[in-house]
Amino acid sequence: MDTLLKTDLRQEYDANGYVIARNAIDAGLAQETVDHVHWLVKKYPDLRPERLHHNLLAHDPFMHRLVGDDRLLDIAEQFIGPHIALFAAHYIAKKPQTGQAVQWHQDGSYWPLEPMEVTTLWVAGTDSKIENGCMRVLPGTQNKHLIKRRELMELDTDKFVLGVGIRPDQIDESDAVDLELNAGDISVHNPNIIHGSNANTSDDWRVGLTLRYIPTSTWVNNEGHENILLRGEKMAGVQNVYADRPRFVEGEHMRFKGCEGWND
Hints:
There is one protein chain. 19% of the residues lie in helices and 24% in strands. It is built from six helices and 15 strands. The chain has helices spanning 4-7, 9-16, 27-43, 54-57, 61-67, 70-80; strands at residues 18-21, 84-94, 102-105, 113-114, 119-124, 135-137, 153-154, 164-165, 177-178, 186-189, 195-197, 206-215, 219-220, 226-231, 241-242.
């Protein structure tokens, strides 16, 4: 793992609103995220691969294994401290030629978190390049206020992953930075930073997994929403709901490295 992970992650994140951690996970685990997307697409054929949301993942053994990987938690801890839960996971996987764009937005505009203490790890399952629609950010915009959801514009969901986004006249794309990642790299970004991505017009898949980690002191103000407790302890007085660790069932779940001993 890069020495950057132990030295300058937080400093660069605070300055720019994002940071890249190279070689954060091994090639085998990155490939399993790709396999998982294809497995989910086969299981849920009516869903676009850009919309494999938390409700499909909160009781999935492979997802629990992945989000609880110590390499990911060690990164998250640098930003939110030692008591860590996962608020949401979301695969945004773009098919070759037809993968949708993600409109410019701030994550925090959509989330019922009190306070807004959260950081996102964007895990590259495949290479994520300009050609296949990598994430783009506007550095420094993490210092702007969160635009309220009612101020956002409605979008054509046949073209864009999100149903609403920031109005184009509020964006200066000349400042955009393309976050090109190799499989196994991770970008970390602030909930206020403005970001998005273009459509995938290449011949290659772009598989990315967004993991939203919160300290257990953050309340998820969404009745019944199931978080995943991963490190440390629950915070007394914070009425979050946590999913139980799911059992691996052959034929019901995707096989993954270590699944044979998962239920032990």
